[in-house]
Amino acid sequence: MEQTEQKLFRLLEKGTSAVLVVREAERQLKEAGFEELQFNQTWGLSENGKYYVKHHDTTLFAFTTGEQAEPRNKIRIGAAHTDFPCLRIKPSPDVSAGGYGQVNTEVYGGAILNTWLDRPLSISGRVAVESKDVMHPDMRYLSVERPLFVIPNLAIHMNRDVNKGVELNKQTDMLPILGLLGEEKEEHMLMKFLAEELKVEEEKILDYELWVYCMEEPRYLGRQQEFILSPRLDNLTSVQALLTGLTESRPARGLNVVALFDHEEVGCYTKQGAGSMMLLNLLEKIHDSQGKSAAQTRESLYDAFLLSLDVAHGLHPNQMGKMDITNKPVLGKGLCIKEASSQSYATDCEAVAVVEQICRRNKIPYQKFVNRSDMPGGGTLGSIASAILPVRTVDVGVPLLAMHSAVETMGAADMKSLTSLVTAFFQA
User: What is the pLDDT of residue 329?
Assistant: First the structure.
């Protein structure tokens, strides 16, 4: 296994919720010599420095300063998201049904619901525990790395039309089974489990952000192991490409930034999403620490560049009619440059040409993706972030099959092409 794919596999295994994605990113950055900063403190940055800062545990920014030989240095930004479609555990979670203990959940993002049935599932996220300082609860992080749940299908004998397509109700059909109940209803089954896992008193638990995640392991498949099958390829492929590109590139000067945002799957418009002011605030704080004025920051933006990384749709061999009639990206043939006249993908021919030139000069395989004209697709954080930060922006990503399934498929070679693009971009 190549080092690029080793890092991806570890992130896929450890990044079971946005907060755990950020923790794994932090581990990689520290290992590469990056220093942590705090938003509420004054920064003293040095030339050729390597830094990162977290925001509400689920969003992270990392940057290298390079040499400050010019008053207005280049700014290169790469952005991706740390969240993915899954199930979120609600407050007062315990549900009792016919001797089974279940957990009340809601669907997060646009998940393909039936793919979550009959799979080993577990819990990941963070828990707020009572502390002495009321303004700062004791935050505990949790990733249960053993199967806890299952959401069972209904047998075909009880649902003869199941193969004709069955709509699943998000409230009643997506409740995972946690265990069996005794003769008397067991109250607070999940809370007792959390208290045991965290080694705290049950009544000390105040609140939580807990997610049900798919426990399938990433693996190769295909005649020549040319595919990777795994949960969370959307969008941890992009997160890892940015981390590797930033830590392994060697820029001579200027500012290189990685922005890993939360909440893309639910619209981006939150305090830690790409629709917030955080990226602009970050750039202003960096420039302020370098003695540059707000005017210089604004001026530098107009020669900056944002590479927005999120996955694309690959050509499905059983559903070829769902793809555009002339643009048909195939897994394993290179990263995708994503375009849309609606601007759901950030599209600008000059900016796209920049990415194409980087790919051509570095012999990086690439393809182009557009939706069918009669089938609007999803969007990315690129258009949202660039509306607040008016810089040239291009959307790119690896093509997938079964995007938003509990388990997705990608071409193994495409991870290398995406990582090579990011590395070359930061050095351009």
Answer: 97
The number of beta carbons lying within 10 Å of the beta carbon of residue 83 is 26
- Strand 86-97, strand 205-214: pairing: antiparallel
Burial status of residue 104 (CB atoms within 10 A of its CB: 0-12, 13-18, 19 or more): middle
Secondary structure class of 185 (helix, strand, coil): coil
Rounded distance between C-alpha atoms, residue 84 and residue 261, angstroms: 11
- Interhelix angle for 278-289 vs 381-388, to 10°? 50
The pTM of this model reads 0.96
Helix (H), strand (E) at residue 351: helix 349-361
Q: Positive or negative CA dihedral for 314, 316, 321, 325?
A: positive
Residue 100, number of CB atoms within 10 A of its CB: 14
What the chain holds in terms of domains, given with CATH numbers, is 3-84+232-427 (3.40.630.10), 86-214 (2.30.250.10)
Q: Which amino acid is at 80?
A: A
205-214 sheet: strands from edge to edge: 138-143, 121-129, 205-214, 86-97, 100-108, 177-180
Two tokens at 407?
């388990």
Judge contact between 392 and 358, C-beta under 8 A: no
pLDDT at 292: 81
Contact partners, residue 269, CB within 8 Å, separation at least 6: 263, 275, 276, 384
Helix (H, G, I), strand (E, B) or coil at 195: helix
pLDDT of residue 184: 62
List the one residue out of 410, 242, 224 whose CA is nearest residue 335: 410
Peptide bond into 73 cis (omega under 30): no
Provide the terminal-to-terminal Cα distance of the chain, rounded to the nearest Å.
Answer: 28
